[in-house]
Amino acid sequence: MNGRKKIEKYRWLLSIILKLNKITPKIVLSFLWALTNSSEKNIPLLIRYCYLKKRAKSCGDNIYVGKYVTIKNLKKLNLGSNISIHAYGYIDAYGGITIGDDVSIANHTTIVSFEHTWEQKEIPIKYNETRPSEVVIQNDVWIGSGCRILSGVTIHARSIIAAGCVVNKSVPSNVIMGGIPCRVIKDI
Q1: Mind telling me which residue stretches traverse the membrane in this protein (predicted)?
Q2: 69 shares its domain with 140
Q3: Regarding beta strands 154-155 and 166-167, do their DSSP bridges make them parallel or antiparallel, or are they unpaired?
């Protein structure tokens, strides 16, 4: 049974759990996330979903977060519905990240919404300021494994980002992108 069917079947139970989630302290949910981060069984997936519902700026329904996913700066993360973020993903919403509905993000993908500057020459680059810049992933997008989505880009609706791609510029709708840096491979 897929995630959507499970949600339909157990919507009543999920409703009760989400009501309890509202009164659960954030520290308890953080602890449970850490405790279950190595599993993709139903209960750990539910715990991670509850964590996102409580901590993200906004969070829709049916969110799958695989094992060993790292998500930072949740207060600047907007999630639609029917999203899957697969194992070993890394998302840092420091500059703001919006992910629309029906988005699949494959394993080992990184999404960062800031970049380091290097203008201050008297200090090492790693200590220079960072520049936030929002990432927007619109509806119906498939991001292949091992991709790097860099700050300031918009991936428009119904696009595919091929495995291993580095996205450093905005992506039009209805295309397959590939390469380093990415470029249009095919219209769909």
Answers
A1: none
A2: yes
A3: unpaired
Q: Number of structural domains, the chain?
A: 2
Q: What angle do CA 60, 63, 17 make, to 5 degrees?
A: 75
The Cα 169–Cα 28 span in angstroms is 39
Please give the single-letter amino acid code of residue 143.
I
| Secondary structure letter of residue 151 according to DSSP | T
Residues 106 and 39 in one domain: no
* Helix count and strand count (H, E) for the chain: 4, 19
Domain end point (choices 37, 55, 73): 55
Shared domain check, 37 and 92: no
pLDDT tens digits, 109-163: 999 999 999 999 999 999 999 999 999 999 999 999 999 999 999 999 999 999 9
Report the DSSP beta bridge partners of residue 171: 155
Which residue type is seen at 106?
A
* Residue range of the domain that includes 22: 1-55
Catalytic residue among 86, 108, 116, 156: 116
Q: Are residues 84 and 6 in the same domain?
A: no
Q: What is the pTM of this model?
A: 0.89
